[in-house]
Specification:
This protein has 324 residues and is an alpha+beta fold. The chain has helices spanning 11-20, 62-77, 117-134, 147-161, 169-186, 236-250, 264-281, 286-291, 298-315, and strands at 30-31, 38-43, 49-54, 94-96, 99-105, 110-111, 193-194, 204-207, 210-213, 221-222. A hairpin with a 2-residue loop joins strand 8 (204-207) and strand 9. Helix 3 crosses helix 6, helix 5 packs across helix 7 and helix 5 packs parallel to helix 9 (298-315).
Amino acid sequence: MSEFSFANLNPDRILDAIESIGVYPETGLLPLNSYENRVYQFKAEDGKRYVTKFYRPERWSEAQIKEEHAFAFELANEEVPIVAPVEIAGESLFEHAGYKFGLFPSVGGRQFEIDNLDQLEMLGRYIGRLHLVGKSKPFQHRLSINTQSYLFDAKEVIENSKLVPIHIETAFYTILEQVISQTAQMYHVDKPIRLHGDAHAGNILCTGDSLTLVDLDDCRSGPAIQDLWMMLNGDKNEQLIQLDTLLIGYEEFNSFDAKELQLIEPLRAMRMVHYMGWLAARWEDPAFTRNFSWFATDKYWEQQILALKEQLAALQEPALQLFP
């Protein structure tokens, strides 16, 4: 099956798949904002609202997806507020017509406010508890956050895509190689643990006075700071306040190694390069060419040259330091 075979995933096939596990939609399928997978919300005859996720073929192995689900169950059992998949007859990963899919309870809420210090402290507690579970044992099948896949493999994908305009190729690849070289020298992880992996504001929902973490699709092994640094924004003083607030909550449940602060800018650089590689790798998928049309424009790549120059400067600056 082709990596880009979602073209065969029509509404009838989706409904047939859901009904094959004994769940019967009462409403139509509402597509949710997801490009890597195909995700739909619906209400079933049992009166409950669900979300079904069809995993992109060939992205994760069956063992890797099951390990993601097992991690979610571990977290839920320890009362970490995570959306875990639904189990039916002891299974949480299903297959229909060649597509692997899962079923999740639908969770409402508003998006996390990264400038709300009370919410940041609460998130710090939740991430601290998540990491306490995460460090209890390693992943056996999930991947790690590493420079090979996030930098070197991503660069190769970008090169093979031929999407960088010819007249700025030299400028783009010169600064890209400098950022990759600097980042690879700086990124060393002493104690990798199981992580959420993609803990940005869009994957955190607020309901009343509580937070819920969603979407473990990118869970990997890596440094604890990976699940914290994306909450930092603004100038250095603002970031220090945000970091201090997060760690007040985090350290109620877990210890944090301050040496990992040196990994923030390398991780930011890795995310930048990996994102470009991800878009280039998915460019044959019609959903990407339709929703990310700017990716193939001269302006986008010119902006990336500037962004990479700024990131190279950030890599050369002193790392954030905790308040004394």
